[in-house]
Amino acid sequence: MLKLGVKDFNEIRKWMYRNARHLELTLWQYEFENGRKDAVLGALSFYQNEDGGFGNALEPDSWNPDSTPYTTAIAIGILKVIGFTDVWHPIISGILRFLDSGVYFSEYGWDWSIPTNDDYPHAPWWNFTPNSAAAESGHTAELCSFILDVCEKDSALYKKALTLAKKLIEIQDMPEDYDHNGGGVQGICILVETLQSLNLLDKLDAKFSRETLNKMVANSMVTDSSKWHNDGLGLPSEYITTPGSMYYSGYQNLVQQELDFLIKTRPQQGVWNITWSWFENTEKYANEWAVAKNWWKGFHTIIKMRYLKNFNRLETGGYCESIYVRLRYRQR
Fold first, then answer.
1. Can you tell me the distance from the alpha carbon of 260 to that of 313, in angstroms, rounded to the nearest whole number?
2. pTM attached to this predicted model
3. Taking a C-beta distance cutoff of 8 angstroms, is the pair 306, 67 a contact?
């Protein structure tokens, strides 16, 4: 079994300290250096606006300072990583206030893009058109998951999320290629896992088909490793992040192939490259894309390293352990 060695780990760590923005560095420290949750929360808070939502290029491909539902979903994902659910904390109470405000919301859920995206440097998929506003359901599913997990059950927001969740999982009649590229399938998987953990899946009286969802996952996942890209769509890690993930038993060999792939494709002395660009907007926003690309490298490095850690693909005795031992020794 291939493992990422101590030397490789230290090279990645150096890159993170030299290049990552502060938020990703606090996440790195939390994951690998016994870092504190409050450090992550402090860094994350600088991306939150007065209305409780998140903007300010937390999503590196959109430099809109205004709060958007999608960017707020990214903040929620970070809170999930550190296991933070205190509804009285300003970050979470602010998010709930933003989602409850009704802004950028329709019968289909929360909008994918907002008009002011066009006023700031961004990737072309963040261009705003009326049809693009509600074009993707994955982030709505994740927002519903968050609300159902932390919100008061008698609140209007909770009831709204429950109604949306029922609609989102009634997928038995949806085409098998439903919203693959927009993250819809991944979002539905997250929602279903949340509903299961809260014992709500069977209580919703929804026309939910596990078989259809399984087919959608199978059709979304790229099983030919020769077609993989480091940050491309369809990798097993989009759906399977730990051995406890609900699809791991059916894709164990594929997961192991991806873990090998990550270890083999890391550039020497650095971290994994980004495989996309801003396409027609790359030249228009050349300076901003150069910065965003580096931000993304730090962000995805943490995801990849967490994936390797979760499946025991980091060599023991790495820097994350040795630094802790040295610090304890000095304190004696």
1. 9
2. 0.92
3. no
At what angle are helices 22-32 and 37-45 packed, to 10 degrees? Answer: 170
Query: 170 φ, ψ to 5°?
Result: -85, 75
Strand partners, 122: 62
> 100, 111, 97, 104: which is closest to 52 by C-alpha?
97
Q: Check: CB of residue 232 under 8 Å from CB of residue 220.
A: no
User: In angstroms, rounded to a whole number, what is the distance separating the alpha carbons of residues 130 and 246?
Assistant: 36
Give the residue ranges of DSSP H helices in 198-285: 210-220, 252-265
C-beta atoms surrounding 18 within 10 Å: 7
Q: How far apart are CA 312 and CA 294, in angstroms?
A: 27
Cβ density class 231-256: b for 16+ within 10 Å, e for less: beebbbbbbbbeeebbbbeebeebbe
* Partners of 62 in beta bridges: 122
Which tens digits make up the pLDDT trace of 274-315? 989 999 999 999 999 999 999 999 999 999 999 999 999 999
